[in-house]
Amino acid sequence: LETESDLRRGANRQEFIPYFQPIVRLIDGSVVGYEALMRWNHPDKGILPPGAFLHVAEASGMMEMLDWQVFEHAMRVIPHLLEPDQYINLNFSARHFRSPIIDERFVQLINKCGIQPRQVRIEVTEGALLENSEQIGAVFRRLHEIGIEIALDDFGTGYSSLSYLHRFNMHTLKIDRSFICDLEANEERSSTDVVRAIMALSTSQRMEVVAEGIETQGQRDALIALGCELGQGYFFARPQSLEALIAGR
Ligand code: G
Ligand code: G
Ligand code: MN
Ligand code: NA
């Protein structure tokens, strides 16, 4: 298992990198943006997913440092990788919102990388919203003013009341993949009902919706029939390295 000192050494050597999974229009597969997903490019063990080290990073207080290492890397490639209207989603752990200067840090990085604020979006899970809603509301407002939009990740699995969506000015709902995986099976109707409810909610609140974890054509078709326009998943593309992404274009 990875230890704290392994993580520190890896961080010093800039071994924490983003992989990129396309977010696409379901109808034609055209890419609207990418989700940046952290990987550890370990010198002996190869590419490690977050499950192998996130708990150690959280427990040792290194999460924020690792996140910024990945964010900076992802933001630096935006001018080379993205069209002006494409964006990159960054995954945020709750503890970032304890930092009062998070918006300034983004502005600095955005200016340094020469990108537009709307080319960066932030994904948070519902758990992050429960922690300190006053402080988080203020941070979200400032980010929104800068032009950075917020997406609610793993939507449907947490505990947030619907009032959060309004209060926090969410731009996007990401439907958790647990609702997508049994969509095409006709005998399982509850997931279809959940997705239909999320679509109705998003329409009334004017929020964008992204379906996660789409693995089959049938799931894609079912989502299109329910009015969902955007998604990501292995059916379209796996998370891939920057090099693989460039090579595949
Ligand atoms: O890519 P993968 O499926 O292995 O990601 C597993 C989990 O790790 C996901 O829940 C995702 O939200 C989280 N994760 C991935 N990249 C990052 C990151 O850069 N920062 C944080 N805080 N979490 C991440
Ligand atoms: O929690 P979050 O939604 O950020 O996590 C995204 C995770 O989902 C990443 O670990 C990514 O590798 C994984 N993922 C992306 N597409 C698919 C998919 O089609 N199927 C499955 N099972 N996992 C996926
Ligand atoms: Mn995510
Ligand atoms: Na998610």
UniProtKB/TrEMBL annotation:
<protein>
    <submittedName>
        <fullName>EAL domain-containing protein</fullName>
    </submittedName>
</protein>
<feature type="domain" description="EAL">
    <location>
        <begin position="1"/>
        <end position="249"/>
    </location>
</feature>
